[in-house]
Amino acid sequence: FPAFSFFFLFLLKPETAAVLKRTVEALMERGAIVRNLENLGERSLPYKISKHKERHRRGGYFLIDLEGPPSIVSTMMDHLGRDIDVIRRAFIKHHVSKTEECSGIIPVNYEDKLIAKRK
User: Fold this and answer.
1) Element holding 65 (H helix, E strand)
2) Do you know which InterPro entries this protein is assigned to (predicted)?
């Protein structure tokens, strides 16, 4: 699966843990593997955002690192667009470089080195 970072901004309420829990559960129900959840803190928004008939000036920022199928992006964007606690959401795809497996130490043929030196 490709790796994604999922960034979202939500209202600051006592139900913060509930918003995070249902978001992570929705990701996992759709086949995502959540690798990391990072709280980026509460901040003033760069501009006023109107969402769900309210104007917002502050919000909580979270970043979730996950691996999942590409189809998860559209379904989660739609799902969180209907969540009244989520103000803004975005997915960012990471290009993960594949690591090569170590084949071990290649033994050196000392006889060939000695023959090469004699010539």
Assistant:
1) strand 54-67
2) Ribosomal_bS6, Ribosomal_bS6_sf, Transl_elong_EF1B/ribsomal_bS6
DSSP conformational letter for 101: P
The 10s digit of each residue's pLDDT in 31-45 is 998 888 888 888 888
Collapsed DSSP state (helix, strand, coil) of residue 15: coil
Give 3-state DSSP helix, strand, coil % of the chain, rounded to 5: 30, 40, 30
Which residue ranges make up each domain of the chain?
Answer: 3-100
Query: In angstroms, rounded to a whole number, what is the distance separating the alpha carbons of residues 30 and 17?
Result: 20
Contact 59, 9 (CB under 8 A): yes
Which uninterrupted H or E stretch holds 97?
none
In angstroms, rounded to a whole number, what is the distance separating the alpha carbons of residues 13 and 87?
Answer: 13
Q: What pTM does this model have?
A: 0.68
Closest-CA residue to 87 (of 44, 56, 110, 64): 56
CA distance 119 to 89: 69
